[in-house]
Amino acid sequence: MLKLAESVKVYLACGSTDMRKSIDGLAVIVQESFKLDPFSTALYVFCNKGCNKLKILQWEHNGFWLHYRRLEKGKFKWSRQNQNQLLDINRRELNWLLDGLSIEQAQAHKEVKVEKVV
């Protein structure tokens, strides 16, 4: 599981992505198709057509990380909305996705922001 700071943005590339693309190819998608900065601290998550492989592009200090996950059984609950749409999700939803759950968990506890103990 990826450990992320609260402030890190996570973007999900809807539809399928050619998993033959490596760092440069995915960075070009982020920059040209989504008009975002691949050198930001955000994570960019891509999935293949079969929904059993994920790649996550991440910039850190002086270079890119390319995280790759292949499921031996099962599929990721991937959004098949508009092919060129980008979803802004949070860390919790990313963890759900990596655990094989939908990012739209109806039964999950809602986040509570508490300002003081009573």
Blueprint (SSEs and pairs):
Blueprint: E1 10-13, H1 23-33, E2 43-47, E3 53-60, E4 63-70, E5 86-89, H2 91-98
Parallel strand pairs: 1-2
Antiparallel strand pairs: 1-5, 2-3, 3-4
Within the largest sheet, what's the order of strands? 4-3-2-1-5
Q: What percentage of amino acids are in beta strands?
A: 15-25%
Assembly state (oligomeric): single chain
Estimated helix fraction: 10-25%
Order of helices and strands: EHEEEEH
Structural class: alpha+beta
Largest sheet geometry: 5 strands, mixed
Shape: globular
Number of strands: 5
Low-confidence stretches: none
Separate helix tally: 2
| Average pLDDT metric | 88
Indicate the radius of gyration in whole angstroms.
15 Å
Cα distance, first to last residue? Answer: 34 Å
Number of domains: 1
Describe this structure in words.
By secondary structure, the protein is of the alpha+beta class. It has one domain (10-98). It contains 2 helices and 5 strands; from the N terminus they run βαββββα. The protein has helices spanning 23-33, 91-98, and strands at 10-13, 43-47, 53-60, 63-70, 86-89. A 5-stranded mixed sheet has the order 4-3-2-1-5. Strand 1 (10-13), helix 1 and strand 2 (43-47) form a beta-alpha-beta unit. It is globular, with a radius of gyration of 15 Å. The mean pLDDT is 88.
Can you tag this structure with a few keywords?
alpha+beta; 118 residues
Summarize the structure.
The chain has 118 residues and is α+β, with helices and mostly antiparallel strands. It contains two helices and five strands; from the N terminus they run E-H-E-E-E-E-H. The longest helix is centred in the N-terminal third of the chain and has 11 residues, at 23-33.
